[in-house]
């Protein structure tokens, strides 16, 4: 079994999608709030339903290559058991969620039919 691709800082812009479930919604909410406070990055809504290609509940964080080297190691440490999709934001949604998709934790299946 192959390991998920780890994030690399080779793009200008990124999204991190933090995945959670009913049992971990409080932990995820606190994590996203902390990200906004510590890193002052744009943090999206806490979606308590699948949204777009995301098959689990999630919250999106937007960041750039300038934030990457500080944010990603911190997020990897702080995420606990949560899975996080980190992908480039190039304007090509299919490539961003496949070719340019990286993982902290276990991979989560995505629904790519909408691309």
TrEMBL record:
SUPFAM superfamilies xref list: DOPA-like
Hydrolase as UniProt keyword: no
Source species, domain of life: Bacteria
GO molecular function, one term: dioxygenase activity
Entries under Gene3D superfamilies matching the protein: DOPA-like domains
Entry keyword annotation includes Oxidoreductase: yes
Keywords, ordered alphabetically: Dioxygenase, Oxidoreductase
One Pfam family named in its UniProt record: DOPA_dioxygen
Protein name as annotated: DOPA 4,5-dioxygenase
Species annotation: Vibrio hangzhouensis
